[in-house]
Amino acid sequence: MPRYGMLIDLDKCMFCQACTMACKSENNIPDGMFWNKVRAVPNGKPYPEYRVTPLPMPCMHCEDAPCVNVCPVSATYHRPDGIVAIDYDKCIGCKYCIAACPYGARTFNKTKAFVEVGGKPAWYNANVPIRPQGVVEKCTFCSHRIDAGQTVTACVQACPSGARIFGDLDESNSPVAKLAAARKAQPLRPELGAKPKVSYAPMMKPEGGK
To answer: Which parts of the chain register pLDDT below 50?
Structure first.
């Protein structure tokens, strides 16, 4: 059984937000909600040395996921392939998982699942279920694609610079495992012990590109 994970190469991220919009379109995400965000991390220096670094932030699909541990109705769970999933029929919208997630990866759905234009949805992917209002949502690693035999997520496919790589972390010859080892990729906040399956290859160029 694969153990799916993602590597994000910070040297290649262009802050274009293509991943954010591809995720939104692919997964029927309501207006005002995002499952994939690219945050701007400032370097803390004054102008003219001020710089920001893009930090893409999907769900980390942690092996010891705090969201799974706190869910009172077991709506959030681990699939056999390691993906952290949500059973929307069980979710009671208590938001415990939102409070527990140290990465801010979860969002409460308080609106419609898509925008109506002329009586029709502005976008709609029939392969992804429409979630009811009042549940919590997040990145799924495009599990519907995996279940259909595909091996690439929408955000990876849309990235014009190849900053994201997705695959089996336990397959030593997979691109994601090989690059993670070569670049000494690290997860965010490893001291928390959640064991995220999303890691980041650090920037190799000096700040400012010099």
So the answer is: 208-210
Report the C-alpha gap between 100 and 91 in whole angstroms: 15
CA–CA separation, 20 vs 159, rounded Å? 10
Which amino acid appears at position 10 of this protein? L
SS3 198: strand
Range of the domain at 79: 4-40+52-205
Q: What pLDDT score does 194 carry?
A: 97
For 45, 77, 99, 208, the CA distances from 66, given in Å and listed in that order, are 34, 11, 9, 36
Asked whether residue 45 is assigned to any structural domain, the reply reads: no
pLDDT score recorded for residue 136: 96
**Residue 35 lies inside a defined structural domain of this protein:** yes
| Beta carbons of 98 and 106 less than 8 angstroms apart | yes
pLDDT of residue 124: 80
Q: How many domains does the chain have?
A: 1
Q: What is the CATH number of the domain that holds 17?
A: 3.30.70.20
Name residues whose C-beta falls within 8 Å of residue 87's C-beta, 6 or more positions apart in sequence: 74, 75, 76, 77
Alpha helices in the chain (DSSP H): 18-26, 66-70, 96-100, 143-147, 154-158, 175-182
* CB within 8 Å of 38: residues ≥ 6 apart: 13, 15, 17, 19, 20, 54, 55, 56, 57
pTM: 0.90
CA angle 112, 118, 119 (to 5 degrees): 55
